[in-house]
Write a structure and sequence with these properties.
binds glycinamide ribonucleotide; alpha/beta; Rossmann fold; phosphoribosylglycinamide formyltransferase activity; EC 2.1.2.2; about 220 residues; binds the ligand Nc1nc2c(c(=O)[nH]1)N[C@@H](CN(C=O)c1ccc(C(=O)N[C@@H](CCC(=O)O)C(=O)O)cc1)CN2; transferase
Amino acid sequence: MPYKLVILLSGSGSNLQAFIDACESKALPNTEVSAVISNKTDAFGLIRAQQAGIATACINHKEFASREDFDCALKNKIDEFGADLVILAGFMRILTPGFVRHYLGRLINIHPSLLPKYPGLHTHQRALDAGDTEAGATVHFVTEELDGGPPIIQAKIPIFDGDDAATLAERVLSKEHTIYPLAAKWFAEGRLSLQNSKAVLDDKNLPESGVLFQQN
Ligand SMILES: Nc1nc2c(c(=O)[nH]1)N[C@@H](CN(C=O)c1ccc(C(=O)N[C@@H](CCC(=O)O)C(=O)O)cc1)CN2
Ligand SMILES: NCC(=O)N[C@@H]1O[C@H](COP(=O)([O-])[O-])[C@@H](O)[C@H]1O
């Protein structure tokens, strides 16, 4: 029985594509993307999923009277598909405490900064404006606190003179496509868990910033 990923997204879906390719190449063995769900009807990630023969659903947050109602519909759809792991891949909605509690420990996100720096939006511009010399991405467990969940893995890149938010985003995204499937692989292998609000890998608490991914 393959390990089932349900991926939530709001945009282009290049991280989704990385998961599709990793499952296809068996870099993520015995794992499948069971469904892709978006809150945006025009998310290109839905097209990517359809091109890969993956079930899709669109639940438009604008059609709901409250965040709680939207999250309840989202939860029902996810559970209809069945998910061992719920993956936020550029999903641009803040999730309610009830939703997070339901999936706690099997709900992860990728954030385009070296958390705890720059939670929220516009991370690359904030790093540039602060004069930082490095940027990156963080895979973390999702908790009620926005982008405050325990980090699992981080990748760092240098910020070059002349970088702008777009060039930074492009180089960070490339690292995301490596670390995100790796974190999911650890989870599918039963090596990664959330215990007492800490990320645990191979029965050891991870460092505050997660595992630092080093690519030679
Ligand atoms: N309870 C949590 N929900 C979410 C988390 C989390 O850690 N805890 N991670 C985010 C992902 N994210 C950054 O990584 C993020 C997504 C969305 C927003 C945000 O401000 N959204 C606005 C709408 C913005 C828009 O529609 O363009 C909103 O929801 O009102 C901040 C950070 C996913 N959810
Ligand atoms: N706060 C959440 C957030 O900003 N997530 C970011 O959205 C992008 C989605 O790209 P993709 O659609 O090409 O995978 C990624 O860079 C991800 O880190």
